[in-house]
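REQUEST ID: PR-0412
SUBMITTED BY: lab tech R.K.
PRIORITY: routine
TASK: structure prediction, single protein chain
INPUT:
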Amino acid sequence: MILQDIGMSELLLIAVVVLLLFGGKKIPELMRGLGKGIREFNDAKNNVRQEIEEGMKEKPVQPATTDTKPTDAQHNA
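STATUS: complete
OUTPUT:
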């Protein structure tokens, strides 16, 4: 994975670049937006997983069998 190859100096450089691009006041707002996006993605992913699991639990509907033999009640009528 890419994150395994990143060292402390690279992370520090990325943090400095982000600070220069967005400024100190915009970073908390940016992180809040990122957190909301990740939360919405995880909620959607969990909803899809739950719907798939519920669909797998449902039993398939079998067609009703029709009996061609007349019953005793039909013979006596």
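NOTES: The first helix runs from residue 8 to 57.
REVIEWED BY: pending
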